[in-house]
Amino acid sequence: MSAVNITLQPRPLTDASVDHAIQAIVAGASTAETCNTDLASGPWDFDTRPGYGPGSSMGDVIPTGSPRQGELPREYREASEVELNQRIRAAKAILGDRVVVLGHFYQREEVVVHADYVGDSFQLANAALEHPHAEAIVFCGVHFMAETADLLSRPEQAVILPNLAAGCSMADMADIDQVEECWEQLAEVYGNMDTTDADGLVPVIPVTYMNSSAAIKGFVGRHGGIVCTSSNARTVLEWAFERGRRVLFFPDQHLGRNTAKAMGVPLDQMPMWNPRRPLGGSDAASLTDARVILWHGFCSVHRRFSVDQIEKARAEHPGVRVIVHPECPMEVVDAADEAGSTDYIRKAIEAATEPTTFAIGTEVNLVQRLAAQHPQHEIFCLDPVVCPCSTMYRIHPGYLAWVLEGLVTGEVRNRITVPQDVADPARLALERMLAAKPPAAPAAAWENAS
Ligand code: SF4
Fold it and tell me: Where do the segments described as Disordered lie (predicted)?
């Protein structure tokens, strides 16, 4: 395993493939550094291990009961990149409009080239809606994204996650049992959670980030709450403050803190809820005074970005424009020039009319792809160590070929289905988000021309 080294120079990226970059590092053909050379192996080599595996989620534990992927047949593990490409194309050609392949912005390039649409999780779920007659939606992302697509698609459509081990460590940090327990403890502090005060506000509105399980979305729906994305978090918090004295925000503390801080909520009114401690590690007085209670969750990928990296980028690239994702820690967001969702980052780069140097604080697959698409700009990842989201990285072309060829033979592999009793309230929470949104429609996923 190679050590993390942030002293390397940011490099101009010309090849969109992070996998190629890692292979070159491991072969000694590149002086760049990766957070773990095991990433050069096929994901089947680490699917069976108890943690999320190499990469930035390495230390995160997979919760008991999470779906586990069975062994990928040998023919897919041993096939070359060229052969897998041919097999995927051939299967898609046979399936035609019967299948839609969706690729998340953070997905590896070798998979994204086969996607019909590329976008963030919500854009992709909406893209699936445009294909009501497709029998199968193959979601090349992580588990909660496939669940959301299942919530929004027609019952007869099968949503498929090519590798069941592609979870999200952040989503897994808000476990439904822990959230139910938190709610009970808060009720002991605030009293009846359905009773409104003199201003017509209930004590707490639960708000969950899209990056959460369907069970959490269902919890939120059952308790008068709402879902948000990184694009509409402020609008959603405004909606919540019109209905509740305070907000319980999960799973990402950073998105919650960055958004509430930008709205003027003081930091001392944002206590953290650590599910392993009584009252979340807080006390009744702090919870009474709270405006936003932040769940103790984070994204291991975005937590890697630091103020030091920004200072280094500014020193080495005078005039650099630093844009980071709001899942980054507050100090990083404060030190950047701008913070915004993946779609914001993409549009900011597309809108730049003059050659510009961009330092970007988000997942390296998206950064490397944007760099390849916009050679007129210099675009580099703030983190010079090549360290992709290791859970997203589990969607390897071998798994994509395996599920598509299964569909060709009439076999639906790795279907993700949300139970009805969870799906109904989860949909309600999503519908509230759509109703709370300003009039503009959600940004569409890219139709993939590659
Ligand atoms: S980048 Fe972070 S939030 Fe997104 S899927 Fe990976 S671990 Fe989850």
Answer: 52-71
